[in-house]
C-alpha cells in the first residue's frame, strides 16, 4: 500500500480552511497524520501569507482516485478550478509523493518537482517523514531538508501538529 504525502496551503481564511481540509483528509484517508502548521510568504505573487502543512497516509486507492478526492476537498474549502495559478487560495492540495512512483504526464509529475525548491513543502515533509528516501534523489527527506537554504525561506510555526477537530 503506497504512502502518500500531500502539501496543504491556504491564504484565504487559512485556519478555517486548513482545519476543514485536515478533518476531511482524516475522514477520507483514515490514519492520516499531519506535520506542524507553518506560516510563510506567498510565492509567485504578492499576497497574504500562507499557512501550510503536509499530510501523510497509506492508501490502496489508485492515484486518480486520490487526486479526485483531493479536488473534492479543495472544493469544500471554496476552491474553484478556474482560479488563476499564482493567486490567493482558499485551499491548495498538492500531491508530493505517491509511494515511490516516478511519473511524468502533461498534468502530473511525481515526485513533485518543486518539492525540492519550496520550504513550505520540504520542511513539513521532513517533520513528518525524515527517514523517507526521495524516489529520484536517493537520499532521505531529512537530508534534503538539512541541505536546503532554510534561512532564505523562513517558516514560522503556527501550531504544532494537531489532530483534526471532531466534526
List the helices and strands and how they pair.
Elements: E1 3-10, H1 14-28, E2 33-34, E3 37-40, E4 50-58, H2 63-76, E5 92-98, E6 103-104, E7 109-110, H3 119-128, H4 141-147, E8 156-159
Antiparallel strand pairs: 1-4, 1-5, 2-4, 3-4, 3-8, 6-7
Helix pairs in contact: 1-2, 3-4
Question: In angstroms, what is the radius of gyration?
Answer: 15 Å
Overall outline: globular
Report low-confidence residues grouped into runs of 5 or more. none
Would you give the CATH topology?
Alpha-Beta Plaits
Number of domains: 1
Please report the number of helical segments.
Answer: 4
Structural class: alpha+beta
Secondary-structure element order, N to C: EHEEEHEEEHHE
Helix content: 25-40%
Average predicted local confidence, pLDDT: 90
Strand count, sense and barrel status of the largest sheet are: 6 strands, antiparallel
Q: Give the percentage of residues in beta strands.
A: 15-25%
Number of beta strands: 8
Calculate the terminal CA-CA distance, rounded to whole Å.
28 Å
CATH H-level superfamily title:
7,8-Dihydro-6-hydroxymethylpterin-pyrophosphokinase HPPK
CATH architecture descriptor? 2-Layer Sandwich
User: What is the C-level CATH assignment?
Assistant: Alpha Beta
